[in-house]
Write a structure and sequence with these properties.
By secondary structure, the chain is mainly α. Helices cover 58% and strands 0% of the residues. The protein has helices at residues 2-14, 18-33, 49-68, 73-90, 92-96, 98-112. α2 (18-33) runs antiparallel to α3 (49-68), α2 runs parallel beside α4 (73-90) and α4 (73-90) runs antiparallel to α6 (98-112). The radius of gyration is 28 Å and the shape is flat.
């Protein structure tokens, strides 16, 4: 039973951009939690609290989207990278740079991830190069069109 659960987890994780989604969720949590920290930890609370929480929640949702809908991973990766970059300016240096760096890394991993391709069969007859001096049609190639020698 335990082996079956481990195999299912391993298969699930391999069929989606797991690490990109994980980094996006961690980045969103970092950006979202900092405005809720005590004022001594914050650089400046002000109006930056609302966009920080919204950007963090959106990044978490994009990370989960990459996990549960791998077909949308390209859009989720690009949006995660853009939001992480915007958080650098709008949200206390993007969670003290940790959230921004995690978001850019996660967005890049989501965008770059490709599903496992099935193994391709080799062609039955490998293409061999044409013999020297012959054309692909089998006729002899001559330097001059008439075939005459000097």
């Amino acid at each position: 039973m335990l082996l079956s659960l481990w195999q299912r987890w391993h298969r699930w994780r391999r069929n989606r951009p797991f690490w990109g989604g994980l980094f996006a969720v961690l980045a969103g949590a970092e950006i979202c939690v900092l405005p809720l920290a005590p004022l001594k930890v914050m650089l400046q609370q002000g109006i930056a609290g609302i966009p920080s929480v919204l950007m963090g929640v959106i990044m978490i949702v994009l990370g989960l989207t990459a996990w549960f809908s791998p077909a949308q991973r390209g859009l989720a990766g690009v949006l995660t990278t853009l939001i992480a970059t915007a958080a650098l300016v709008m949200s206390n240096l993007g969670g003290f740079l940790i959230g921004t760096l995690l978001g850019i890394l996660g967005g890049g991993l989501m965008f770059a991830w490709q599903p496992n391709a099935t193994a391709r069969r080799p062609s039955p007859e490998p293409h061999s190069p044409t013999p020297t001096g012959t054309t692909p049609t089998g006729t002899t190639a001559h330097p001059d069109p008439q075939g005459a020698q000097p």
